[in-house]
Every structure is written in C-alpha cells, then in structure tokens.
Design a protein that fits this description.
Residues 1-22 form the signal peptide. This protein is of the alpha+beta class. It has a domain at 175-267. It is built from seven helices and 19 strands. The strands form five sheets. Strands 2-1-15-17-16 form a five-stranded antiparallel β-sheet. Strands 4-5-18 form a three-stranded antiparallel β-sheet, with helices on one face. It has a three-stranded antiparallel β-sheet with strand order 6-8-7, covered by helices on one side. It starts with a helix and ends with a helix.
C-alpha cells in the first residue's frame, strides 16, 4: 500500500469514529442517516448529581430519565404535565420500605434503578398510575409479566439491577397490546417492525448483557426516533429539542449510549446533566423553579 492510500485509509477510520447511527419514524418511513458527533459541550464533575437535581427542582423540573452507565449518572429533568410532588431516595439495599411509604402518600414509582452501589427510587404524584406492584426475580420475570397483563396492568419499568431483575407494573398507564423482547444486538430491526404496526418503544435499556425493549400502543407518542453513539449524545439531544421532540430515555449498554425521543410525551423545558456522583443538588434546582 503506497503512502497516499494509507493516508486515505487513516482518515476514513478517524472520521468514522465520529459518526453514529439513528432512525426516525415519520409517516411509517424509517430513514437511516450518519450524523457527525463532534462537540465539546460535554462536561463531567467528580460528584453525584445531587446539586443538579436540587437545581432542577428549583426550576420546577422533574426527573423523567435517570440511569447509570460508563461510570456516570445520566439525568434528564423536564417540566411535565404528568408529574408533581416528586421525591427521590438512594439506598444501599432495595428500597421496599420507601416504596411502601410512597404508595401510602399517593405517589407511584416513576424511576427505579441501580448504579455505583446505590439503589435509586423516584416516586411522583399525578402520574395516573394505580394498583402498582413490583417484583424482583433472579430469572427474567416473564411469568410475572404475563400475570400482570392478565390483571390489567402494563410494564412501567423493567431492568436488571445489581443481582436481580426488577419489574414494576401499573394500571392507569393508557398503554395496551404490550410486547417485550431481549436481544444481544441493538434491536433496530425489531423497532422498525413494531413501528410499522404502530407500536412504539416505551422502555429501552441494557440489562444483563442484553438489550431489553418494551413496545406498546396507547403511549400518545408520535414521531419517535432513536440514536446510538459512543460518546454521550449531547448533540443529538439538542437536535431532538430543535425538532420539537423530548427525551424519553438515555441509557448506556454494550459500548454505546442509546437515546430515545418522541413528540407527545408531555415533557417540555428539558435539561440534562451527567455526573460521576448522584445528582441530588441538580434535582432540587430543577424542582424549585428559582
């Protein structure tokens, strides 16, 4: 190989590392595009995002996505027509007592996850959920999902946390005709097939070495899109917002960040933060609206 060919190959490899794939559902069409991921807007700080949470609360924003991956907490807070009077708790052990107390206070689980040695529970009012239940299982809880469906509930959270699967199911979600699947590779083909059936993604995460995805009708979402990239998708989040869409979730798995967004979520005025430590201050700033 002569020098000019070697140089060209080097440039192609270098440029390709700055691109990521994404897809958008619009009028039943699926378009794949390469998108530049160059940006310098990402910042990391060496503390859990407690300050960011507090800041969010002060700005009357609520936690709508919170996950841990690649050594950082990824937090999204939104103004919402769905949530109010939100609380969060972190615990070393599974927070079953805190869940019970929240239910007694007319709150329901809106986030339940694990990262960096902590269980994180977020409960909110005004979700419309009722008769909520949770289960933890060593094996994937397919029987519990079927039982919940038979009782008229739908999946509102499903994730492998620490050493167990955690399933949360609720009534009053408006969701119907749910299906779930697990895949070794990112399930882009499955997403397209379900979009064609007007079933949109209502849950996506990477758990126990597999992508876990739940499809539903009745979410109210439209114009749904997803993106994956190696770097945190700060540029892609801005593009979602510019397209009048909101972030549904940001999750990390199998070496990539997966961003899910749509219109019709009921979320607006969103902010995102990434922190090494839990973002409690950022949550409070979002809540208070000062």
């Amino acid at each position: 190989m002569d020098f000019s060919k070697a140089l060209l190959l080097f440039l192609l490899i270098t440029l390709s590392s700055h691109y990521s794939s994404f897809a958008t559902k619009s009028d039943n069409q699926l378009d794949y595009t390469l998108k530049s991921s160059d940006d310098n807007s990402m910042s990391f700080t060496a503390y859990f995002p407690e300050k960011e949470i507090e800041e969010g609360y002060r700005n009357r924003k609520y936690i709508t996505s919170l996950s841990y991956g690649n050594g950082v907490w990824a937090l999204v807070m939104s103004r919402s027509s769905k949530y109010n009077n939100q609380i969060w708790r972190t615990r070393i052990e599974f927070p079953k007592d805190e869940i019970k107390k929240g239910w007694e206070d007319n709150k329901t689980i809106t986030t339940l996850t694990y990262g960096n040695g902590l269980w994180v529970l977020v409960m909110s009012e005004n979700t419309g959920y009722y008769s909520q239940s949770w289960k933890t299982r060593i094996e994937f809880p397919k029987d519990e999902i079927r039982k919940g469906w038979d009782e008229g509930k739908t999946i509102t959270h499903l994730e492998y946390c620490k050493d167990k699967w955690v399933l949360v199911m609720s009534k009053g979600t408006g969701l119907k005709e749910q299906t779930w699947m697990t895949r070794n590779d990112f399930p882009k083909d499955e997403i397209k097939k379900n979009w064609d059936k007007n079933k949109l993604v209502t849950l996506l995460n990477y758990s126990k070495g597999k992508w876990v995805i739940v499809f539903s009708k009745g979410s109210g979402y439209y114009g749904q899109s997803w993106r994956t990239r190696i770097e945190f998708p700060s540029t892609e989040i801005k593009e979602l917002w510019d397209a009048q869409k909101s972030v549904i979730s940001v999750t990390y798995g199998d070496g990539v960040w997966a961003l899910l967004g749509a219109k019709g979520t009921g979320f607006y005025g969103q902010i995102w933060r990434t922190r090494v430590n839990f973002p409690k201050d950022e949550i409070t700033r979002g809540w208070s609206g000062s």
